Amino acid sequence: MSIRAAFWLTKFPQFQFLHQGTFLYNFVAPSLLCNYYHNFATVTTALSSVVNPKLSISTTPSQPKPPKSASNNLDEALVSFNRMLKSRSIPSIYSINKLLGSIVKLGHYQTVLSLIKQLHLQGVLVDAYTINIGINCYCHLNRVDFGFSLLGSLFKGGYEPNVVTFTALIKGLFAQDKFSEAKNLLVKLVTEKQIELDAVTYGTVINGLCKSGNTKIAMELLRSIETLNFEVDKMLCCYNMIIDSLCKDSMISDAKNLLLKMSKKGISPDVVTYSSLIHGLCNFGQWKEVTELLREMVGRNVFPNAHTFNIVVDALCKEGMVREAEDVLEIMIKRGEVPDIVTYNALMDGYCLQGQMEEAQKVFDSIVNGGLEPDIISYNTLINGYCKKRRIDEALHLFKDVSRKRLNYSIVTYNSILHGLFENGKFDVAQEVFNEMLAEGRSPDAVTYNIVLDCMCKNRQFTEAFSFFSSMQNSELYIDIASYNILIDAACKDGKLEIAKELLNELLSNGLQPNARTYNAIINGLCEEGSLNEAKELLMRMEDNDCLPTDVTYNVIVRGFLKKNQTYEAMALLDKMRRSGFSADNSTIEMLVNVLPTREQDPTLLNMIQKFAPKDK
Description:
With about 625 residues, the chain is mostly helical. The chain has helices spanning about 5-10, 25, 40-50, 65-85, 95-105, 110-120, 130-140, 145-150, 150-155, 165-175, 180-190, 200-210, 215-225, 230-250, 250-265, 270-285, 285-300, 305-320, 320-335, 340-355, 355-370, 375-390, 390-405, 410-425, 425-440, 445-460, 460-475, 480-495, 495-510, 515-530, 530-545, 550-565, 565-580, 585-595, 605-610. The protein is built from 35 helices and no strands. α6 runs antiparallel to α7 and α21 (about 355-370) packs antiparallel against α22. The chain is globular.
């Protein structure tokens, strides 16, 4: 072992085991046999004013290119690699590393590791760059432990880990949610000062902190590196990551303040910066602010790209403003930005949310006619839309079309079609789909189990439902509040209130918090049974547990008291309901109207009832 290697092992005792293994073992450890998988008119006006929208920097979340292109690139790279190994004079390791790097960019990490193994078997001496490529691949495959093991290969080859090595490892630790380990490694590197960390390393850490919900720490790190005089574009990336994280955390004001701060430091925001802010504002429906931001960015000669337009289209569709979204799409095309599959999926989702399935189908057809290939999200959106409209035959046709197009079903696809089949009473077909899902190696998630559980309860198969729930508990599946709510609601509707109460106590003992739906189901059951005092006590308990009653809660309990002719108590609850910002629904109003003729001899109570009953009644 070299003196420098000994130094590293002394400074980083957690790496003591690394020098023991052989190079070959580090690349072909047995566990590698596993598979890795991997105000709107103003907004429109502002968008219309955009000129020369072509940008040198693009944040468009481009979809994967058609498989043939990626496959051809990989095939060509493999042919070149084999040709190198078979040539009489093997090319320099520099040329080989360059080829391996190109395959890494295609995302074929396991392939790269296999090729490095071949290099070793052929007796080709690799260098530190090759080993760093291997470390990077392991980290991308969520096997940072194997990445660390390759440090031993560096030492055995007489090399030292450099900033690239540790940047890859830190990124790998964050990718596997090992926040503490990543932070400790960074602190160690900064403290020991054996490696000069660059902007890429700090950017990796900031990105990891933001994605792990530690935006505040990321901002503190940003302040500490502002004095290191990194290149402006590198600092811009760091600011952009934090601004994006703040917007995702709904901290729009903080994001705006950071925008002002970076501008004062001479760092000009780019399309990524503005797109993040626009996304955050769109999520809150702040269209006036979106308009102002669009005008500001155009004024700075920063023009919206496809991603920016997609954000606006998606936000409008989610708010039910699909026609306005169509207008934005038209502006987008006029400005030279080509709509991608993300654009059309957002538009299709908008029509599905409105129940306009014919329009959604037209968008789907236009994807094909426009030369794009629908992806699994396209199919999921349309299948879910048809299921919600109870048009199960169209949904099934699309479901079968997924396999014909050689797309991979996602768990969302299965959940959507299963829910639709159960809701339409097609239990046999649902069973076939469920079995097919298992045969394909797709594990059901909590949503899948809840769909099946809900179906059993709605069909009054309570014994089977509780047995199924027990099997869920015995598995490693996380049981959420939704599962309990399904059973509690079913038990209450079947008059089994004691079982519902037991389930409530059980979920509390499991550390779950009941929500409004939980309480509403039990309060409704108690009211149906005539246990009004107990229902009122549960209402107070609900408030004490920081679960605010909803309009459903109040209407249910008010009707319960009205049914038992306890009108004064009902009026008190109605007054409390009104002060909470809720109104009586039609069923409650109808009961109030029916009470009016019976209360003519009680002027005080009559005035109270008339206060809540509609004037025309």
